[in-house]
Specification:
- With 155 residues, the protein is an all-alpha fold.
- Helix content is 75%, strand content 0%.
- The protein has helices at 2-12, 19-25, 30-41, 45-63, 68-74, 80-91, 95-113, 118-124, 130-141, 145-154.
Amino acid sequence: KLKKVLSYIRTSFSEPISLSDMAAICNMTPKYFCTFFKKMTKKSPVEYLTSYRIEKACRMLQSSDLSVTDIAFSCGFGDLSYFIKTFKKHTGTSVISYFNNLKIERAKNLLKEAKLSVNQISELLKFDSPSYFSKAFKKITGYSPLQYKKIVLQK
């Protein structure tokens, strides 16, 4: 019974899913289903669903060019502000910080491997401006992009 509902969550997480929907899959009342589910997973059905959606959003932020809004909606969050609040609760960081950290990691790799300028990397990673990119890079790494490139090339 648990496998059926977990499979349903995996295939339908982008759609609205209610507690009643999940309980019906297991032919249980919502109250009994909550008890059963929590006993088996150590999370309530809603906590599990929300965690799964956040996990999917993290993966999409890493591998997609979609906007945060599009990712939130495609992961089953019908409200952007709820997604932002829930994301921070589950990951310990804001969506923007998470997203910027991912972009800075990509920038570090590009600075190591590619013959691109700071301006080109900033544009490629869709930062608002090269100066914003440089500030964000320094805030996260402690170095400006040029300082970082110089250090990495010396190794």
